[in-house]
């Protein structure tokens, strides 16, 4: 009898097929996880601007006087996934980069009683179209339903 050493070609092909199937299932889920993590960075960048615009609107009596660099609203900052933040007339706009390249988020304040009601809009280029759904899920700030 001859002792068999190593793996046969069929055994190696079965292992490669299993790895390919697991990769096909796992990689899209991992990509969604990375996209949501990047959007969390965008959410963290948004928070101080949103609070500052709310304070500015309270102090000034309107959001039209609320711009980046004035009334306690920070100048444009960047992070790993946010290329630019702008505030004009109280409207906050964030532009993504790296994993969020092609994604733009806009938050618009509107008067509601004595406070502000925010509405969000996510726009993406054709290459970043897969980011719109997670963006809308994370940044749903409009409370129009009563």
Would you kindly provide a brief summary of this structure?
This protein is an alpha+beta fold and 146 residues long. The protein is built from two helices and four strands.
Radius of gyration: 23 Å
Query: For the terminal residues, how far apart are their CA atoms?
Result: 81 Å
CATH-defined fold name: Glycoprotein, Type 4 Pilin
How many discrete domains?
A: 1
Strand count, sense and barrel status of the largest sheet are: 4 strands, antiparallel
* Largest sheet: spatial strand order: 1-2-3-4
Q: Which stretches of 5+ consecutive residues score pLDDT under 50? A: none
Number of helices: 2
* Highest-level CATH class: Alpha Beta
Strand content: 15-25%
Mean pLDDT: 85
Shape: rod-shaped
The string of secondary-structure elements, in order, is HEEEEH
SSE diagram, text form:
Layout lengths: L8 H52 L21 E7 L2 E6 L6 E10 L2 E10 L7 H7 L8
Antiparallel strand pairs: 1-2, 2-3, 3-4
GO cellular component, one term: type IV pilus
Pfam families: N_methyl (PF07963), Pilin (PF00114)
Membrane topology: Single-pass membrane protein
What distinguishing features does this structure have?
transmembrane helix, methylation, Glycoprotein, Type 4 Pilin, 2 helices, 146 residues, 4-stranded antiparallel beta sheet, alpha+beta, Prepilin peptidase-dependent pilin
